[in-house]
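User: Before I run my own analysis I want an independent prediction to cross-check against. Here's the chain; please return only the structure tokens and, at the end, one sentence I can use as a sanity check.
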Amino acid sequence: MRFDAIVVGAGFSGMYMLHRLRGLGLSVRVFEAGDGVGGTWYWNRYPGARCDVESMEYSFSFDRELEQEWEWSERYASQPEILRYAEHVADRFDLRRDITFGTRVTGAAYDEADHLWRVETDGGERVAARWLITAVGCLSAARVPDFPGASTFGGASLHTGRWPHEGVDFSGLRVAVIGTGSSGIQSIPVIADQAEHVTVFQRTPNFSVPAHNRPLTPEYQNQVKADYPDLRRQMRESMTGLLGAAGTVPALEVTQEERTREFEARWARGGIPFLGAFTDIAVDPRANELAAEFVRGKIREIVSDARTAELLMPRDHPIGSKRICVDTGYFATYNRPDVTLVDVRSDPIEEITPTGVRTAAAHHEVDVIVYATGFDAMTGPLLRLGITGRGGLSLKRKWEAGPRTYLGLMSAGFPNLFTITGPGSPSVLSNMIVSIEQHVDWIADCVAWLHERGVTAIDADPQAEKNWTAHVDEVSRFTLYPQANSWYMGANIPGKPRVFMPYVGGVGAYRLKCDQVAADGYEGFLLSS
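Assistant: Structure tokens:
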């Protein structure tokens, strides 16, 4: 069976891509591994799962009626509410009829003679299309560490990114949570409210700021909706796609009193905009340490046990160089007598036993193990698709030393293959919805432009790709990001190349670059009829 376009993934990017391609009059088939829409918000159903971008900003802007009709209940929407929103979008635009659910793409090979992508699925389907667009998300390839003895554990083993849809009742259970990244920080307080005892195994403490979540009043929502055109413009032109994030002065050029006042105001407001308090936090180690020490001071204030507080204070990476977490009561959870923190740097996990977790110093008896161990970020979901381009070159082989793309949209040697929020674009350093809409619109406009001119194939120019990849690396080195062993760098996956993958130059600047490339007849791309 042949289509004009095949889209892989039915999260927010895949749904909007389908909508735009349909608007061009193209035949489209979407393949989705889950049994419903939502992507990240379909899979990540762990307790406390919540967006770290405010609801009114983490929403589609492409349809005026959609953004006016949907009512958000909280400042930071929970997973169930975001999933309901995704389902509403699917219903409103009748998207499901072009989506094949419960189906994984297992291979995609470029047919050079016919300028077609030939795609295979785990259901045995073989289909072809001129355009192949990956909308697989940046954080969808779950990573479970290969601890010795893991398969012998007699209780339930759960990963936050693949949570049972029916939920889990922790009442009366002893629970181990391995990992203190975003999903661990969100889930631990909720699990602790249910469980008999929670033992947290922490390798790396993470910086986290309070969400100060609250219900949204109708008056507030109406005000934002009335101002949406201007607010959306501000988001698109900003560094991160967020409102209220950017400070205007360096931390090192104001007094200590002024710094403290601004940090306190940002802490009281809550959320990711804390990092935007001053212009030099991401680039100057001295300014960064001032922000980091402010957060450490808050941890000291919140956590009553001094030793536990010290273990929770990050000291091995600049604040913001790993994605900062946004929490509800995380640090205060360690004041509970039924929560224990184990530092696995000084007391490493040696094995999983049938009844618990053995570290170098002790054996911890537990009934359930929760792996909050994150993902093979950005490249992992793409490399699992089995993509093969010109001359039989696999994407996995091409990227064996790290991803190489032009604008994060295409990789040379893989014609007509577009990637939404791929490595080399702002993606995970931004409000994902803003970046998703920008990429989808650019791809749809490009496809329309090519169709009008009878162009059958577009590919990234190898030199343009080389220059852009070097630029992404160069810009990252002006910042403190590469100093952290983060998933931005692939450091959480053994053997993965240590390359800073997202583009740190900013959402606004990146958009201008993409728009200019298109205005110049898709400069840096090779076109063929």
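Sanity check: The chain is about 30% helix and 15% strand.
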